[in-house]
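Milestone 3.1: sequence recovery, worked example.
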């Protein structure tokens, strides 16, 4: 795959910090990387990991999902490293927006979350890779090169974690809505009123989702969903 060309390689970062790509001139045929990360310490750490690699060039940093989408749209990097939990527009939403506009975009989720729910959302949104922040720097560098070569990459420590839930039925968007409201203490009739559906339909959804999750009741279902990362507390 030929590197995607940016309209202007000299563009500085937005509000992510004082670092500027102008201080690290790009060499020919380097992998152009965009970092979308809200925490300054992790941005600095990623910068330090990438700097010694002769075939990689960090072109910009962004501190939010919306800023990251704008940076991608302007710079068209070869690889984007994105945190899942970003302020405002989260990682899955930013990823889906980028992939809708740029189907060939290669995004690696680089996050601290190993929840199956986050992994599933990221892969459904079009992520090419999923890395944990506790990975060794050699693993991250290998992931960047692998994805740039056209392969998908999942952090090795997640393989067993994913395999444990392989074959489990996914909850529908409506089932997640029902479960989220149940987790907030709403009774079935209240859930029906909020979602503008019949109470019998709510009962049907709860029966389905408890079966899918292998739960004893709705409270147990909420607990399982939180543990799997399908719901957030």
């Amino acid at each position: 795959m030929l590197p995607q060309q940016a309209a202007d390689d000299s563009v500085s970062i937005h509000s992510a910090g004082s670092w500027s790509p102008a201080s690290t001139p790009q060499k020919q045929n380097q992998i152009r990387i965009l970092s979308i990360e809200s925490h300054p310490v992790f941005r600095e750490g990623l910068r330090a990991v990438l700097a010694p690699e002769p075939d990689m060039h960090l072109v910009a940093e962004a501190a939010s999902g919306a800023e990251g989408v704008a940076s991608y749209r302007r710079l068209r990097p070869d690889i984007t490293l994105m945190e899942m939990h970003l302020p405002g527009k989260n990682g899955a939403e930013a990823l889906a927006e980028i992939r809708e506009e740029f189907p060939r975009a290669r995004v690696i989720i680089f996050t601290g979350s190993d929840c199956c729910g986050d992994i599933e959302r990221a892969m459904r949104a079009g992520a090419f890779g999923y890395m944990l922040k506790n990975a060794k720097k050699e693993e991250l560098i290998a992931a960047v090169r692998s994805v740039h070569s056209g392969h998908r990459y999942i952090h090795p420590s997640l393989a067993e974690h994913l395999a444990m839930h392989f074959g489990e039925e996914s909850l529908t968007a409506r089932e997640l809505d029902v479960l989220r409201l149940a987790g907030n203490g709403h009774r079935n009739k209240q859930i029906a009123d909020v979602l503008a559906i019949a109470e019998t339909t709510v009962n049907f959804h709860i029966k389905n989702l408890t079966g899918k999750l292998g739960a004893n009741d709705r409270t147990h279902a909420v607990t399982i969903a939180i543990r799997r990362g399908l719901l957030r507390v």
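Residues 21-163 form a domain with the Rossmann fold fold (CATH 3.40.50.2300). The longest strand covers residues 56-62.
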